[in-house]
Amino acid sequence: MRLRRYPVDLQSSQIIPFPTAGSQLSSTRGTYTVGKLIGDGQYGSVFECIGPFDQAYALKMFRPANRHYDTVKSEWYAEMKRLESYRHPNIIYIHDAFEQNSLFYIALERADVSLRSMLGTPFPDDVLIEYARQLLMALFYLHNNRLVHSDLHAGNVLVCQVNTHPIVKLTDFGVAHQLEGSHWYRPQVANPKILTPELITAGYTTRQSDLYQLGL
Fold first, then answer.
1. Which residues of the chain register pLDDT less than 50?
2. How many other CB atoms are found less than 10 A from the CB of residue 24?
């Protein structure tokens, strides 16, 4: 494993080894063999991996990024619980969640491609309509359960069975918010590339904000 200097918490200088291709990770459900890196961001990395019974998964690792251990654990736990709570054909499925060597992981169903990788390729009208329909079904389900995704962009839309009968999957619920007694909330973080008008002008987000981001 290659060593990268990310402290477990702000008071610690402990070195945390990040997984690389060929690394093996263990949970109560079995062993995961890490493959190549397929997605990387400030607070998370996603790897191909082979899990129990030789099943293919996408393994998301939550980056410490110089944050306190409890902060990262809370973020991991919140996303895990959201994915476990909201089951829908157009929402990515979580198979496992575990901690190893002070790093937190979730094992997700493996999609074929992200919508971002397909941008620039012309879509037939019927395919475009079907993708939009499936995304709207996912949002309809989430909004009926008073959850706002808040980070809807092409990188967070995955496609399974892309060459046969495409199934769109919404993923990454790291900044999603559960509405409690109100129809709006003030987010702590926001993607500057997909800011909504109400967030820019008034500093709040609603369920309708997801629809605006979908339109972008």
1. 1-12
2. 12
Q: How far is CA 188 from CA 77, 143, 204, in A?
A: 18, 20, 10
Where is the domain boundary, 109, 125, 156?
A: 109
Task: Please report, for the domain that includes residue 186, its CATH number.
Answer: 1.10.510.10
25 and 96 belong to one structural domain: yes
pLDDT given at position 118: 94
Q: Which residue, 165, 151, 201, 172, is CA-closest to 45?
A: 172
pTM of the model: 0.84
Which tokens is 76 given? 């991991």
In terms of residues, how long is the chain?
A: 216
pLDDT at 74: 95
Structure tokens at 4: 């990268």
- Residues 144, 57 share a domain: no
Rounded Cα gap, residues 208 and 140, in angstroms: 11
Q: How many domains does the chain fold into? A: 2
Q: Give the domain extent around 176.
A: 113-215
Task: Please write the tens of the pLDDT for every residue from 96-128.
Answer: 999 999 999 999 999 999 999 999 989 999 999
* Phi-psi region at 119: left, alpha or beta (left = phi > 0; alpha = psi -120 to 50): beta
Which residue blocks in 119-206 are alpha helix, DSSP H? 125-144, 197-202
Are residues 128 and 199 both part of a single domain?
A: yes
Across the chain, the runs of DSSP E, i.e. the strands, are 3-4, 16-17, 24-27, 30-40, 44-50, 56-62, 94-100, 103-109, 113-114, 147-148, 157-160, 167-170, 177-178, 184-185, 205-206
